[in-house]
From TrEMBL:
SUPFAM superfamilies: Cytochrome P450. Signal peptide: none annotated. It comes from Papaver somniferum (Opium poppy). This is Uncharacterized protein. GO terms for molecular function: heme binding; iron ion binding; lyase activity; monooxygenase activity; oxidoreductase activity, acting on paired donors, with incorporation or reduction of molecular oxygen.
């Protein structure tokens, strides 16, 4: 989802209980109702103590694990940064939900709302999005949400005719650059070439806007989005780029102003306005959005959802693939070559690649590109976990930390192990009910009545396409420490 997250990024058995999809609509009457364990501590002191644990002393995963062990519960109260001193009006009090059954409540729009809670109670200034609340901040009950999401679905469908060709042609450019660097330097960091590839193919596919019409946008557009994303998310991210307490003071104590990236954002706005005018016109004439609403929502879809998400997810795929020492790469390559033959890569072909798709799903499970999901209780309701139920009050904020939820041992066997074929065969398909990377289960359907990612299926297909492209292009592909260190072209 975001560049700041990207800075910090780079299992099913016969004993598994019934794999009926989790339901949040009714808590079992047989479950004992418990008081939610945990507390928020003393005013100011409690949030600051939790903030230091979260960012400094423990890190997010250990932070949640320790409290889950302490409370002997996957549902508990805690504080999630950002907090005092300069985040006035931001309430860090949360109810953590860290198992698949409890986590499902975050997507039941009868129980929860999603208004302004993309990053919990902290919301970056709307100056980053044209002084308006773009679609991601709208609840499903707001009429504008339906307009924006329907528009997003339209431009995705419209892009389908050029999506694959634009992606492959930009991959050709990217791999050409990487091959030259590997040959001359022995290695090549792939992140920025990949980001440039992602930016160029997305702008052409989604907007019909050729970034090369502007040398600055074509060469620097991905960097502009990186900075725009980072400034919004820095207060919520563990980076590890500065020694403590400098990181706490400089990154987690205040929100950064839009002014620092306003020039770049305005250039991107004018680029979309001029080069994407046909898509802008569709937003205005067919979906009732004004020009400003259309362009700012397009930029958010491009920058935060698409570019930001792919910038986290696709590098993790390449690292897993290129760092494999188990023979998986050869198994994947065999499947790809059998399915492709002499044909050109296409979505219809990659749909038939069961192991490749499972590898992509397992990467989404193991390294979710969006670590957090939030929701606010729309009304009083009973939240059920496996062995207990909990009373949640209207207005309380729930937080799910997806890297732990996706390692729920009651659902996934060997949850701490990367199992590439986990999602194959009938049993693996059932597990897709629990793969929540897209703000809902993989088996869910995006609609204006929910907040599930409109592009969830095309994201999986694009990732599978990347894997297939690498394996048809190279007989050997090696990645170490975020760099390609060796490639052997396919014979």
């Amino acid at each position: 989802m975001a560049t700041a997250m990207m800075m910090n990024s780079i299992k099913m058995s016969s004993s598994t209980p019934s794999l009926t999809p989790p339901s949040s609509s009714s808590a079992s009457v047989n479950l004992p109702v418990r008081t939610i364990p945990g507390s928020y501590g003393l005013p100011l002191i409690g949030p600051i103590s939790d903030r230091l644990d979260y960012f400094w002393f423990q890190g997010p995963e250990t932070f949640f694990k320790k409290r889950m062990e302490e409370h002997k519960s996957s549902v508990f109260r805690t504080n999630i940064p950002p907090t005092f001193p300069l985040f006035v009006g931001v309430n860090p009090n949360m109810i953590a939900v860290l198992d698949c059954k409890a986590f499902a409540h975050l997507f039941d729009m009868d129980l929860v709302e999603k208004k302004n809670i993309l990053i919990g109670d902290f919301m970056p200034s709307t100056s980053f999005t044209g002084n308006m609340r773009v679609g991601v901040y709208l609840d499903t009950t707001e009429p504008l949400h339906s307009q924006v999401k329907s528009f997003a679905a339209h431009i995705l469908k419209r892009s389908s005719s050029v999506w694959v060709s634009e992606f492959i042609s930009n991959l050709d450019i990217m791999w050409g650059t990487i091959e030259k660097e590997v040959k001359s330097n022995g290695s090549s960091s792939f992140l920025f070439p990949l980001q440039k590839c992602i930016f160029r193919f997305l702008t052409k596919s989604l907007f019909g806007a050729d970034p090369m019409k502007s040398s600055e946008i074509g060469d620097k557009g991905h960097e502009m989005l990186d900075k725009w994303l980072a400034l919004q998310l820095l207060p919520t991210q563990t980076l590890g780029v500065l020694p403590q307490p400098l990181e706490e003071i400089l990154f987690h104590s205040f929100a950064y102003p839009f002014l620092l990236v306003s020039g770049d954002y305005n250039k991107l706005f004018e680029f979309v306005k001029t080069e994407g005018k046909e898509v802008v016109e569709i937003g205005m004439t067919e979906y009732g959005l004004n020009q400003e609403e259309t362009i700012h929502n397009l930029l958010f879809i491009l920058g935060f959802n698409a570019f930001g998400g792919f910038s986290v997810f696709l590098p993790s795929l390449l690292v897993s693939l290129g760092g494999d020492k188990t023979g998986l790469q050869e198994k994947l390559r065999k499947e790809v070559k059998e399915k492709v033959g002499s044909s050109s890569l296409s979505f219809s072909l990659v749909k038939e690649m069961e192991l490749v798709n499972s590898f992509v799903y397992e990467t989404l499970r193991f390294i979710p590109p969006v670590p957090f999901q939030y929701a606010r209780a729309r009304k009083d309701f009973v939240l059920s976990s496996y062995d207990s139920a909990f009373q949640v009050k209207k207005g309380e904020l729930l937080c799910g930390y997806q890297p732990l939820v996706m390692k729920d041992p009651k659902v996934f066997d060997n949850p701490e192990t990367f199992v590439a074929d986990r999602f194959t065969k009938e049993k693996g398909q059932e597990l897709l009910n629990y793969l929540y990377w897209s703000n809902g289960p993989q088996t869910g359907t995006p609609a204006t009545s929910n907040k599930q990612c409109s592009a969830k299926d095309i994201v999986v297909l694009t990732a599978s396409l990347l894997v297939a492209d690498v394996l048809t292009r190279y007989d050997s592909f090696t990645v170490s420490s975020g760099s390609v260190t060796a490639v052997e072209k396919a014979k």
